[in-house]
């Protein structure tokens, strides 16, 4: 019987603790709804707009960051096309070395297959552009994950403007 009483008293104590700790815990939870709160931090608490002009500046920053992100995506795509063309030329030169008299009569050459060999000029640049693109992508994603509607639309507007300005150079 003592065991039942102690468990009943423990249950009521737990209820008292949870009811008294609820106001403290409300600060720790994040509302998962879109909101228009002016003072929504971006990336750190020190980068939190306090006035409407600072909020506008934060929106402008996100638009510009999105445009830069799309410019780098187009630039990487452009460079990939250039690198592929250079590799095709290299393979053509190598195939020309194996060119024989019979092949020159009908204009055919041996095709060199397989992936391009590792290149000190191309592969570190490719990896650096990938890291830069992913870093910018994640920075924009973190801003959108704040669920601030203004930040969300700023990123969308920046992506639209960035594609409008730079997408044609990427293909």
UniProtKB/TrEMBL annotation:
Span list, region Disordered: 1-24
Residue ranges of the TM segments: 55-75
Keywords: Copper, Copper transport, Ion transport, Membrane, Transmembrane, Transmembrane helix, Transport
Highest taxon, organism lineage: Eukaryota
Protein's cellular compartments: Membrane
Annotated GO CC locations: plasma membrane
InterPro entries: Cop_transporter
A Pfam short name: Ctr
Membrane topology label: Multi-pass membrane protein
Listed GO MF terms: copper ion transmembrane transporter activity
PANTHER family recorded: HIGH-AFFINITY COPPER TRANSPORTER CTRA2, SOLUTE CARRIER FAMILY 31 COPPER TRANSPORTERS
Family: Belongs to the copper transporter (Ctr) (TC 1.A.56) family. SLC31A subfamily.
Protein name: Copper transport protein
């Amino acid at each position: 019987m003592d065991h039942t009483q102690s468990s009943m008293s423990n249950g009521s104590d737990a209820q008292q603790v949870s009811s008294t700790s609820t106001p403290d815990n409300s600060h720790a939870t994040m509302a998962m709804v879109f909101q228009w709160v002016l003072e929504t931090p971006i990336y750190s608490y020190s980068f939190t707009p306090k006035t409407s002009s600072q909020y506008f500046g934060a929106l402008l920053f996100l638009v510009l960051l999105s445009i830069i992100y799309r410019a780098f995506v187009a630039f990487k795509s452009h460079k990939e096309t250039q690198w592929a063309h250079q590799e095709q030329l290299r393979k053509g030169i190598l195939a020309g070395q194996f060119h024989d008299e019979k092949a020159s009569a009908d204009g055919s050459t041996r095709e060199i297959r397989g992936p391009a060999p590792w290149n000190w000029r191309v592969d570190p640049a490719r990896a650096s552009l990938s890291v830069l693109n992913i870093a910018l992508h994640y920075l924009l994603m973190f801003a959108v994950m704040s669920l601030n509607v203004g930040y969300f639309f700023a990123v969308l507007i920046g992506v639209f403007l960035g594609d409008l300005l730079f997408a044609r150079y990427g293909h």
